[in-house]
Amino acid sequence: MVRFDIRKILLIGIVIALPLVSINLQREKGETLWFLVPFKVAGTEIQDLFASFRLMVQETARTYVHLIEIKKENRALSEEVNELRARLTDYEEVSRKSERLEHMLGFRAQTKADLLVAKIIGIDLFSQAQSTLRIGRGETDGVRKGQAVISPYGVVGTVVEATGNSATVLLLTDRYSVIDARVQRSRARGIIEGRSSSEGCILKYLQRTDDVRVGDLIITSGLDQIFPMGYPIGLVTSVSKRAYGITQKVEVQPIVDPSRLEEIFVLRDLKNADLFAVNSKVKIPFALTELNRHPSAESRPLESPVVTKE
Amino acid sequence: MSVKPSQKKILSLVGHLIIQWLLAGMQSALWPSVLGTPTIPLIALTSIVYFSIYRSAVRSTVYIYCLSFLLASFSWLPWGLVAGPLLIVSFTTQFLRRRLFWNRLNYFLLICSLAMPFYVLSLWGISTLIEVNGIERVSLLRMILESVLILPLGVALYPLYRFVDELFDQPEINESEVTLW
């Protein structure tokens, strides 16, 4: 016969009934039972811990995914930046070229001279001994030996050799170059002789008593029948007089820097050469007005305005 | 088709001249735009040194004459002033070779480096002696820079010269295989 232990049954009944009773009590009061509070706190803590861990993992994973995306995006942006930089460089180059050509066209439009635009295609192979340029225009374009070569800013040199489709230009800094010149301010006359591309030129045969100062502008005299009168050549950088002798030593820095030139003008007809600005009331060589308005990379900067009445 | 040794010699000479023609064009039209004008070593000098070392005096003289005509077309310098210093450099190199020679690239580079200032001084000397309006002065810094700059050019061009020689003709000095050092 099965014997029931009343005490055990009662105990089991109480154990089972307690939670059931507590459910009802909680629902009714809406408060946590005092004995459940520590468990709640502990649970919350562990939940918080795991939640933080989950968030951290999620954040890390998200960051990693973002990093991959960022890396991809960065690569794409870098490529785009490089492309844009290349375009910008191209644009700047085109812009500069356009500006340069605009100046040249402006120069040609404002003068009555017969000017031929020529592109520089090379320099002298023996540049330590000879300062010449090779231009991509020759006899077929009307280029002849002895013609003047200029830029909108000043004298460049003279044509010394012309073949079918190219010509050699002797720069004014070459040791064989001589140009009849004047000091613009005092009208003193001398001969500009080249020395080298680094040393510039020297103004020779200037009388000891002639008035010349550092900073004076040297212009063409027009007497050599190569260059038109009054075109800028260079600026006086030093004047020295010896204790004896009838001349003085005058060093001149050319206004045009040949190493920076890309295009030049060949003056085909000297007789009709009028390089003076058409619209100017006072007759000023276009080069001087240009120099004062737009100091170019092709020309050396002028310290002060040098435009004076011719 | 068999090519006679004399024809090979001519072909080799023409091959070297074509290379120098291309290099001279590059030097006068491209180099100034990329690296500027102040320091341009005469690239053809490496070829002069090469011929002076690996060819007989007659063959190198013939080559220099042909080359000087070619180089003069890239300059306004009188032909005599182009050929003169190059011949002086060539004869000096040959004189040196007979007394001191080892068949290696470093020898070629050493001679190239020495030939560069020697060439500039020869040019200056001839110009001062012969020309009415000779070269006034020589830049020491430029000479040094050119002597240094010709070294990498020599390293780059030496295999090319060897290649042309192997293609058409064998150099007269057939010693051990030329190595770097």
How would you portray this structure in words?
The complex is a heterodimer of chains A (310) and B (181). Chain A has 310 residues and is of the alpha+beta class. Chain A has two domains: 36-109; 110-293, Rod shape-determining protein MreC, domain 1 (Thrombin, subunit H), CATH 2.40.10.340. Helices cover 34% and strands 25% of the residues of chain A. Chain A is built from three helices and twelve strands. Chain A has helices at 6-29, 37-110, 286-293; strands at 114-123, 132-135, 148-151, 154-162, 167-171, 178-183, 189-196, 200-204, 217-220, 232-240, 249-254, 263-269. Chain A has a six-stranded antiparallel barrel. In chain A, strands 6-7-8-11-10-9 form a six-stranded antiparallel beta barrel. In chain A, 32% of the residues are buried. Mean pLDDT of chain A is 79; it is low at 278-284 and 301-310. Chain B is mainly α and 181 residues long. Chain B has one domain (5-172). Chain B contains seven helices and no strands. Chain B has helices at residues 5-29, 31-35, 44-54, 57-72, 79-99, 105-130, 140-168. In chain B, helix 1 packs antiparallel against helix 7 (140-168), helix 3 crosses helix 5 (79-99) and helix 4 (57-72) packs antiparallel against helix 5 (79-99). The N and C termini of chain B lie far apart (38 Å). The relative contact order of chain B is 0.16. The model of chain B is unreliable at 174-181 (pLDDT under 50). The interface between A and B is medium-sized, with 24 and 29 residues.
